[in-house]
Amino acid sequence: MSRFQSSVALAPVPRPLMDEVVRALLDALEELPFTDDGHLEIGAEIGDVRLVEGKHLTAGARYRIVPPDMESDEADIEVKVVSWKRAGESRIELTSDVDGHVLHARLELRMVGQRAHTLRAAGSYQGPGPGPLRKLQRANWEAEVRFEEWWSVLGQRTSPISLRVKHPLAIASFLIDRGKDKDERWAVEGRLRSRGRWIARPVAAIALLAVRSRVRRALSDGFGKAEAAWNGFMPDLVERGLQERVTLRHQVEVKPVSREWAEEYVTALHQAVEGLRFEKGRLTDTSADVRLIEGEHIEAGSRYRFFHEAENEDEREPESLDVSVAAWDLAGPSRVEFSGTGQGPTGWAEIDSAQKPAVVRGAVTMSIEEFTQLGLEGEANLERWWADVGGSGGDVPALTATIDHRLGEGSISIAGSPAEGDRWKVDVTVAVEGRDWARPLIAVAALVGFAAIDDSFKDLVNETAENWDGAIPGAVESEPRRAAEATLRRAMDGAADDGAADDGAADDGARDDVRPD
């Protein structure tokens, strides 16, 4: 038998926080929305989950699951509730057969009042291999976490966390012990034990002897990295606690655009749309397939249809987007409404005046990857932006938006104010919270993954600011009219401007992301 061990000192986690997380997860499971015919509908694509017997999370309840992008004859997954007691023991059993990979698992959670006492998991795996090799493609495992022992001060080492894996040729166990705390840190020791079985026992002994130092070094390095990562994010996580509303904030500095240039750009863009030419109901001088199907060009009541290639080649008809003009006035309000086929976007956009823009509003409902019916509605108060109301430290942001989804809701706010030199400070704030059954689940996900979510958010804001700074100089150095015309061409063609070589730097900077409005 080979033994390896390594010790670390970890920032502690308060027991109440852990119990809050467990209760939140149980709340989310209990509130899962099943329809009258037993289907789970949560507003995201997770495959086919059906309650086929009994009542949700009661003894005897059975569920059938078909993963995304798989058919029922490719995967047979069944979950059975043996018992469910929030103040006692809950037990769930799972059986899965996916392409010949058979998995059996059992999960047991014991609660004492509102506190988690013990979590146990055990199971077996059988691979699809044929003949004698099939015996070598199986394994059993069991794991246990004893919460009460972990948080108790025993004055001696125990193993509250354990994992044991048994294979026909080997057995391995991993134990995590907690000793006396030192310097307000958990003293944690991990021990790995392994040995061969049957005919592999002497071979495994020789092999482990040869790689002993390498395994010990790998285990030590792994524990060191885990210790650094844990102590890097856990104190902030503990300080933040379990919050239903997650708030992200980040500030960047960008190159500003003058109000005069922006207003001329919006006016020119409005006029460029009016200058589009249609012959026999089709837009000319562009590769885009745009048709005027009702009314006169850009008059109230006119309606257009934008065609684009379908993502699925088997579809008989191309996807399209219908755009209707509700109002169009250079010195007054302009409003367009749009609706896509299938799961295409639907919404509207309006501006109070293209000649002297002060307020821009818009809304869109669309599908994004696995999520369905994500709604966005926003308003940009340009008067407030130029007047530097709601900048850094201000009370009211200039740009606001709301996010709506069946799983949750949120808000976006953007405020600006002058910075030193020829720069402009932009403060971006995003707040999100779950809805109904997803409220505790999103709170837990945000607690565990806040650091990664926050880093991704900051990276996105930084990247957007870099793109803005890369595009703006070329645009503002040209005439607003030429920048507006280039923007419209790119929007119509959905590709690079064919006339970029003629327009030079003006077109190089006039991209879709250069829209001061």
Label this structure with key terms.
single chain; 517 residues; alpha+beta; 2 domains; 11-stranded antiparallel β-sheet; 9 helices; 24 strands; 28% helix; 39% strand; elongated; disordered C terminus
Number of strands: 24
Report the β-strand fraction as a percent range. 35-45%
Shape: elongated
Rg, rounded, reads 30 Å
Find the structural class using helix and strand composition: alpha+beta
**Largest sheet, if any?**
11 strands, antiparallel
Instruction: Compute the average pLDDT.
Output: 84
Whole-number total of structural domains: 2
How many alpha or pi helices?
A: 9
The main sheet orders its strands as 1-11-10-9-8-7-6-5-4-3-2
Low-confidence stretches: 389-394, 495-517
Question: What does this 3D model show about the protein?
Answer:
It is a single chain. The chain has 517 residues and is α+β, with helices and mostly antiparallel strands. The chain has two domains: 2-234, no CATH class; 246-509, no CATH class. The protein has nine helices and 24 strands. An eleven-stranded antiparallel sheet has the order 1-11-10-9-8-7-6-5-4-3-2. Helix 1 packs across helix 6 (438-476). 15% of the residues are buried. Residues 389-394 and 495-517 have low confidence and may be disordered.
